From TrEMBL:
Gene Ontology biological process: DNA-templated transcription initiation
UniProtKB keywords: DNA-directed RNA polymerase, Transcription
Residues in RNA polymerase sigma-70 region domain copies: 299-326
Protein name: DNA-directed RNA polymerase subunit alpha
Organism, as annotated: Urinicoccus massiliensis
Amino acid sequence: MASINQNLSIRSLHLSTRPVNALKNYGVHRVKDLLTMPMFDLLKVPNLGAGSIAEVSGAIQALKTSLREEGDDYFFLDGQGYLHTDFILSDLALSNRCLRGLNSIGIYSLKDLVNSSLMDLKGIPHFGKTSLRELEDLLKKFKIIHFNQKGPLTAEGFASQFILHLNRALEKSSQALYRDLLVLSGKFLNDGSGPLTYLDILNQPKFLQEVYGLTSFKIALENHVLVQLRQNRCGLTFNQLEDLGPSLDGFEAFLQDLLAFLVQEKKILFHRDLYYPTFPSILSCLDIFFQERDRQLYQLRIQGFTLEEIGKEFKLSRERVRQIIKEMNDFLTQEQIICQEDSYRYFIQNYDLSAQQFEKIFQDPLAYGYIQTRFNYPKGQGRPLKELFLDPKLPDYALDNLKSLLNSSYIQVEDDMVKKSKFVIHRYLLTRYALDQISFLDYFSIYKQFMTQHKLEGHPSLFVLPHNLMTKLSGSKEILWSFGRKLRYYPFYSYDFSKLLKGLALDRYKDVEYSTRYFFTRHPQLMEAYDLRDEYELHNLLRKICPPEDYPQIQFLRMPNIRLGRGHRKAQMLELLDLHSPISSHDLARLYEEKYGVNRQSVIATYMKCLEPYYYKGVYDKEKKILPPEILEDFQGQVTEDFYFLQDLRDQFQEAYPHLDPGYINSRSIRQLGYKVYQDYCISTKYRYAQDFFRSILAKEAMYSEDRFSRKFWSLANVISNFYWLKKNFSIFHYDSTTIVNLDYLKSLGVSKESLVSFLEAADPLLMNNRTFCIADLKRQLGDEELCQKNLPDSFLAYLLEDHLDGICLDRFYSQGLIYRSSRHLSPEEFKNCQPLWP
């Protein structure tokens, strides 16, 4: 809208007749009246309907935009007489419902609110009269002071720009300072030297000298200094305070005089080149607020005496002492009492400091005990002491003390500090040199070299013999061992192993002996999620997380073998021979490997001795029975399914014919029944290949729950491989964590294979490595994609990404709704450091 004279009639805005008449009847005749009219008064104008409100609100917005283009700006004057350039709405007294509504249309500050349209506000869902009334009450608390930065400089324009200049550092200025600046700038503008600019006046030394002499300016800067020091109780240098002040010529000398005055008045403290806020010590606070007995009791506590020791001294119970100290702490908190010793809270809260280390660094014998007594910060959860060395908040004197402490207790290793502790040194070396498998002898050589390099060979607490070190490392949960005495560091405590144990489901295996290779090869995704690299590491890890007292049914044999219940390899070999006799040793070893995971060379070398009675001319043979004709015909009528586990078939036969020998069910008789025999199961001969059966049954139903098939069925390698083949070929999909749907089901919802591929192709370039996101964010980014318009659950899209895009991880963090992309699964600490893809 072009610039318009504010004294013109509101008819000049070309509004409809109805809103013009309604406004005039309400007393609004000129453009100026309309601009000064409070936003929410539009709702109070009689005969002004929703359409008219929208029309007038739009006109007001256009006028405000035009004025801003002409250089108009403004401050907010609060009830205490302070000028502010703006406010963040979350800092003001607004309800959460009101804040969420405003944020949903991009209104975050008070200026955003003032510049918004009334119709924008009315268009917010569930933003009713209560919220509008809340905003109306808020705007009444502030007065808007306008000024124009264009045209000839006026006293008001200069004072406003100077306030803006100051408020870059001070955030707010008093109205008294604004009035003093009006008078002062008016004097310089009227001195007869002709038209002046803002910089002409600001660069005059005489002007700034008079500014520095203003009482209102001194008060503003004094308050600013006190606020900054109280926010930085560990102290600030002069240069830091100067950087936090306004950028004005001669400000350094003014600040020096101001700080000297504040020190003299004991409003601040100056010690070892640092300025501090003044607060009483904890002992002074105790003298002021508490009785003699309670003072003594509290003082003993901060000196390190136990509750029981204090109770004996004052003839009180331990619980009563605890109650008295709690009541004293509650009083200090309720009255917002701050002590000198509180300046150290930051360090005790954020760093892992013992009382002895704290006293050596800060030379204060009471502060540590007081802060722990009052606030009880958890120990052992802060950052390591060596990181304190780089903290800019640490005073110079404390830095010198810290260096002395570190030199006596730590070793400087490149850019790192390593504590002189056997445990810490080994952890450092393991995390540096043993992230991949390394032989024990190579690791011991690295340890000896480290000790020699840092002249620690004579240190008695660090000396260790090879066999003692191996025993120590074997007992550590953070070390995984593999074949050939190889080891590597493993971040054991960063994992939650409940998902691993649930996935392996060891409790469902009864009386059987396996190699952990069986589980390792059948659960590749679990092994990748837990970064397990071979069956030996899996065996070693299970020993650590399945102690005998919690898992008495599990016996850990020589790596990598594991016994569940009373299983035994001899019985398992005989069972296989019963089913597949006659058979060569190599074929039998292959079958045993497929069923129990044991390497076939190991089977041939050590497992077949028990079968010597059945060996003849390179073949193991055990006579197999066939079903009598009448039994065959009868049992064929009972066996109607396309798929059976062999054991289930034996159980069914024994139940039907308890008087017959169970040996009648063998590979030969099963073929009589019309089935092909595989390792643990058989499939009807109407299927040419096993994969034909598995793909047919997995994709047959439009929707089904995973538990429609037993866990035993899902444990079959052939089931898993065909299941993932069907998923990769867009035949079946995870709808949620336990529900499977096929493509026909999706087509019934209007979802085509082409729309799935289009969604994946659009999402792939957006999803960056090591950045977190949620499905809702991704849908907003891909709003035009057809798939995003369908009523599909977020879980469907999440599993679709995981199945078809490389590196998409839905691990334990998906419970928080978060997904990430990475070449490997991240630990909780690594995940915490990931930035969101779309903030």
